[in-house]
Amino acid sequence: MTLLDRATSSVSDRLSATGTANALELRQVSKMFGALVALADIDMIVKPGERRAVLGSNGAGKTTLFNCITGDFAPTTGSIRFFGEEVAAFPAQERIRRGLRRTYQISLLFAGLSVLDNVYLACCGVSRGRFSFIRPGRDDALMASAESLVQVVHLDDVRETKVEDLSYGQQRQLEIAMALSGAPRFILFDEPAAGLSPTERRELIDILTGLPSHMGFIIIEHDMDVALRVAESVTMMHNGRIFKEGKPAEIEDDEEVQALYLGGEEGLGHG
Hints:
CATH superfamily: P-loop containing nucleotide triphosphate hydrolases
EC number: 3.6.3.-
Protein name: Lipopolysaccharide export system ATP-binding protein LptB
CATH architecture: 3-Layer(aba) Sandwich
Shape: globular
Organism: Roseibium album
Domain ABC transporter: 24-264
Strand content: 15-25%
Number of domains: 1
CATH topology: Rossmann fold
InterPro entries: AAA+_ATPase, ABC_AA/LPS_Transport, ABC_transporter-like_ATP-bd, P-loop_NTPase
């Protein structure tokens, strides 16, 4: 059993059973902010275990898409199914209980607590005993899960270090550990490589490619080298719509993609 398997061994049958349904199925999803069309008629199917990159320039609608999937925003129209269950009207916490996780562009961490304490609190937050005030003992299952997750994201050497003393890259790794708490069925990574050094980006690639094969994810990323190395399929977005889909090699070699996203000031590498 791997470290991550041990860390997520307490997941319920309802969360661990994927069945034959698609992990995500979006049909005609749109999002309006007044007269502004942020998303327009998005159709997307992601299979269980699939790893997909969503690429596009700023304003393409990528983060709005994530917000609609996770429940931060309610879609104006359309259907969102998570492992066969319609969740478009569910609040974010209900989607979390069903095994959906997400990281954000801006770090959301407890700066004054240690790495291990942050991950432990994340494990508590998705457990049935999350309101318990009992101090965990050495044999506490949630603490054991937290310790395993800290190792999974390569932070064991700084497990007792306060978050405020970590490098930016280490904070991004910590966010991934927290997103892995409670055996997620699917994860949305929102620009995890933003602001990282080349060394930290290689570390990120190692972590993402090392996740169990059954754990699918979608990654929004401006760094094409990172995105295309960790994804097996790519969705390109432009002006709130899906512009093109394909395998990483197909997208990288596509002349329209190069002309629209790599040839000018709106290139993917420009934020």
